[in-house]
Design a protein that fits this description.
By secondary structure, the chain is α/β, with parallel strands linked by helices. It is about 45% helix and about 10% strand. The strands form four sheets. A six-stranded parallel sheet has the order 6-3-2-7-8-9, with helices on both faces. The protein has a three-stranded mixed sheet with strand order 5-4-12. It has a three-stranded mixed sheet with strand order 10-13-14, with helices on one face. Strand 4 and strand 5 form a beta hairpin. Helix 10 runs antiparallel to helix 12 and helix 12 crosses helix 21. It is globular, with a radius of gyration of 23 Å. The termini are far apart.
Length: about 500
C-alpha cells in the first residue's frame, strides 16, 4: 500500500481507509487553549471536540495545543509538521482496530520557544476555555500540608521573571492579568487531570500563587474565572513503534505519533463555566451539578487498580497491565481490594452499579491489544498514590476498617523503589522523587517504616499504629516470601 505523510494536503487521500474530518478546518476558530497535548488529551477531549466540530453550525471551538515543557518539543514538532492532525486508533476488545483522523487541534505552540505567544493566545478574546492535562505532579502541592509548594525553583523563577514563565501558574497569571487590563470577559480554567476535585485544586493552587505573584489580580479572578471539576476516563497507553508501522502498512498513513486507546471513554463535567461552553453533551460527555462522587469512584477504583497492578506486576517481572491481570492470584487480590477496602468508602452513586463497574474494569485491564506498559503506569507514583490510594486508607482507618491490602501495596512500592524486580532485573522508574524514594527504600531494608517518612507523599500516615503494623508485616512477608506467595496467602485468609 502506498503511504503518504499525514498533513492537510494529503488528508483527502486517507478518506477511503479511515474516517477523516469532514469540516473545513481553515474555518474553525480557536476557542480552547489546551496545555499538555499528550496521548490522553488526544484520545479524550480532542476527540469529543472533533466530533462536535462535525456539526455544521459549530466552528468556534477549535483547540490550540500548548506544549509547556522543554521535554514536550517532540510532540510539538510532530503536530506542527502534521498541521495538528493525528490518527486515533481504538483497540477494540474483539481485536479489531477502529481508526479516525482527528482535526480539532488547529494551532500548536511551544511555550519555551516564545512564552509571550502562549500568554497572548490565552488572553485572546475568542478563547473562552483553558483546559489542562499537566499530570498530577503539575499542580505543585505538598501532600503533607495540602498547600502550594513555593520552594519549587521554577515557581521562584516565575515570581522573579513573570514575563518568562516556566510553569502553568506563571502563564495563567500573566494571561489573566492581560484579560483584566483589556477589559475582557472572564474565562473558564478546566482541569482534565486525575485529581479528585481537580477544579477545586486548580483554583486553590492558582490563587495561592497569585496572592504572592500578583495579589492585585485575586479579586478579579474570584469574580470572573470559573474552575469546573471534571472526571475523565480512558486508558491510553504510550504509542509503540509497532503502532506507527502497523498504521502505515494497513492504512497508508505516515503518522509520526498516532494515539492508541481502549474503546471505553467517559467524561463527567461540572456545569460551571464563566461564559459560553461547547455542547460536549451532544457527543457523549455528561454535565452534572456535582462530579465529586464520580471522580472518587474512578480514582479509587480504576486509577488505584492500575497502581496496584503496576507495582505488584513490576516486582513479578511482567511488562504490561493485561499480563498482570491475567494472573488469577493478582486479579483475585485486586478484586478483593476493590470490594473490601474501596467500595465502603464510595457509597451510593446515582445511575452507577458499582459491581458492574468493577467487573468492567477487570475486562478493560485485560484487553490484550492495549499493552499498557507497567513503567508508564508506575511513573510518578509519588504523585499518584496520595490521590489514588491514600484517601481510601484514611477513610478505612477512620472507620476502623481493613487496610491490609492497601498496606501490602504500599509495602510493595517500598520494595519496588529499591529499583529491581524479584529476579534482580533493573526496573525503569520515572518519578520526580526517584532519588528520595530510592534512598528511603534502601534504609527501609533494615527499617521498613523509614519509607513512610517521605512526608510529601504519606503525610502523617506513619502516626497510625494500625497501618504501620499492617505495613511492616507486609514488608517483611514480601521480602521473605515474594509477592505472589504473599498474595495467595492474603487471598486465602481474608
Amino acid at each position: 500500500m502506498k503511504s503518504y505523510k499525514l498533513n492537510n494536503q494529503n488528508l483527502s487521500k486517507f478518506k477511503e481507509q479511515v474516517a477523516v474530518p469532514t469540516y473545513d478546518r481553515s474555518q474553525v476558530k480557536t476557542g480552547i487553549v489546551h496545555v499538555g497535548i499528550g496521548g490522553f488529551h488526544r484520545a479524550h477531549q480532542a476527540l469529543y471536540t472533533d466530533q462536535l466540530l462535525h456539526n455544521p453550525s459549530v466552528n468556534e471551538w477549535g483547540i490550540c495545543g500548548v506544549a509547556l515543557l522543554d521535554f514536550d518539543q517532540k510532540i510539538y514538532n510532530t503536530l506542527k509538521e502534521q498541521d495538528g492532525l493525528y490518527t486515533l486508533v481504538v483497540k477494540e476488545l474483539d481485536g479489531t482496530f477502529t481508526k479516525r483522523i482527528i482535526g480539532s487541534i488547529v494551532e500548536c505552540l511551544f511555550a519555551p520557544e516564545d512564552p509571550s505567544k502562549v500568554i497572548e493566545k490565552m488572553a485572546n478574546p475568542d478563547v473562552k476555555i483553558i483546559t489542562l492535562t499537566i499530570t498530577e505532579g503539575g499542580y505543585n502541592y505538598n501532600e503533607a500540608t495540602g498547600e502550594f509548594n513555593f520552594e519549587n525553583p521554577q515557581i521562584q523563577s516565575d515570581i522573579e521573571n513573570p514575563q518568562a514563565p516556566k510553569t502553568i501558574f506563571g502563564y495563567l497569571t500573566q494571561a489573566l492579568k492581560l484579560r483584566k487590563e483589556r477589559g475582557l470577559p472572564g474565562i473558564t480554567i478546566q482541569s482534565c487531570d486525575n485529581i479528585q476535585g481537580n477544579g477545586h485544586m486548580t483554583h486553590k493552587m492558582l490563587l495561592s500563587y497569585v496572592k504572592v505573584a500578583a495579589p492585585e489580580l485575586v479579586s478579579w479572578i474570584e469574580s470572573n474565572v470559573s474552575f469546573p471539576n471534571s472526571m475523565v476516563d480512558r486508558i491510553t497507553p504510550a504509542t509503540a513503534p509497532s503502532d506507527i508501522v502497523a498504521l502505515k502498512e494497513t492504512s497508508g498513513i505516515e503518522d509520526a505519533w498516532p494515539v492508541v486507546c481502549e474503546p471505553f471513554k467517559q467524561w463527567v463535567i461540572e456545569d460551571d463555566f464563566a461564559t459560553e461552553r461547547p455542547a460536549w453533551e451532544t457527543v457523549g460527555a455528561q454535565f452534572a451539578k456535582d462530579v465529586v462522587p464520580y471522580e472518587k469512584m474512578k480514582l479509587s477504583l480504576l486509577n488505584a487498580g492500575h497502581s496496584v497492578l503496576g507495582i505488584l506486576g513490576s516486582l513479578l517481572g511482567y511488562n504490561a497491565i493485561d499480563e498482570v491481570v491475567h494472573n488469577p492470584n493478582i486479579s483475585t487480590f485486586l478484586k478483593a481490594y476493590m470490594d473490601v477496602e474501596v467500595t465502603p468508602t464510595i457509597g451510593e452513586l446515582e445511575g452507577v452499579d458499582l459491581n458492574i463497574y468493577k467487573k468492567s474494569l477487570l475486562e478493560r485491564f485485560g484487553n490484550i491489544n492495549i499493552k499498557d506498559q507497567l513503567d508508564r503506569i508506575c511513573s510518578e507514583s509519588s504523585a499518584k498514590i496520595p490521590i489514588f490510594i491514600l484517601p481510601t486508607v484514611q477513610a478505612q482507618l477512620k472507620d476502623k476498617a481493613l487496610v491490609k491490602r492497601a498496606a501490602f501495596v504500599l509495602a510493595a512500592w517500598a520494595v519496588y523503589s529499591i529499583g529491581t524486580d524479584e529476579k534482580g532485573k533493573e526496573l525503569v522508574i520515572k518519578d520526580a522523587l526517584k532519588s528520595t524514594l530510592h534512598t528511603k527504600a534502601q534504609v527501609a531494608q533494615k527499617n521498613p517504616t523509614a519509607f513512610l517518612d517521605i512526608e510529601t507523599v504519606f503525610g502523617t500516615l506513619k502516626e497510625s499504629s494500625v497501618f504501620v503494623q499492617a505495613y511492616k508485616e507486609a514488608y517483611e512477608n514480601i521480602t521473605t516470601h515474594g509477592v505472589e506467595k504473599c498474595v495467595i496467602e492474603i487471598n486465602n485468609t481474608l
